[in-house]
Amino acid sequence: MQEAFGVPETGGADPDRRAALDRFLGEVQVRAFRMAHFATGDREEALDIVQDAMFALVRGYGGRPPAEWRPLFFRVLQNRIRDWHRRTAVRRRWRRWLHGPDREGEGAAAGDPLQEVADPGGRDPSDAAADRAARDALERAIRELPLRQQQAFLLRAWEGLGVAETAAAMGCSEGSVKTHYSRAVHALRRRLEAYRP
Q1: What pLDDT sits at residue 8?
Q2: In the 3-class helix/strand/coil scheme, how is 153-180 assigned residue by residue?
Q3: Which of 23-32, 119-128, 183-192 is predicted least confidently?
Q4: Is residue 187 part of a domain?
Q5: 67 and 140 assigned to the same domain
Q6: Which of 2, 86, 96, 148 has its C-alpha lying 20 to 30 A from 36's C-alpha?
Q7: Alpha-carbon separation of residue 42 from 33, 49, 84, 124, 131 (angstroms)
Q8: Boundaries of domain holding 87
Q9: Who's near 67: CB < 8 A, 6+ residues apart?
Q10: Which of 99-108, 116-125, 178-187 is the least confident region?
Q11: What is its EC number (predicted)?
């Protein structure tokens, strides 16, 4: 799968470090893509963001101790996501000024092709449909969160980063992480009440 992201060559690094860095990037690439996809809503933009974050980690931090890679990588990823949002906001302002307001739905991201793969377990179609509806509702709810809440939730709940690591990745205080995460959890619980057992 690393080929899909264009995992950067670790060049002159010693073979053990290169193997460790390759393993690390292989472990985080799919989850990082999902985080970027949630944040952008665009598959290609998310791929570009993750690839850029991987290159930045290898170039700038590949020589650091492996224990530091995870928080550093997610800090770089968060910065790339914020940069993307800033650039997108500027582009929208220019488009509105030049061409009028954007039309709703233009440039909507294509569906995830992995969602279309048949279930090899042969589950009951009604169970699969209910699970898919719940998963789709969760993804929609995560996408609707404000960006800082969304990213705090994904870093804490998906990646399992601690409060301090999440604060370092997001470039904010630990108190802000706690606030964003708490608000995200409460918002998600409200929006997903119908899917709770």
Answers
A1: 54
A2: HHHHHHCCCCHHHHHHHHCCCHHHHHHH
A3: 119-128
A4: yes
A5: no
A6: 96
A7: 10, 11, 11, 31, 23
A8: 1-101
A9: none
A10: 99-108
A11: 2.7.7.6
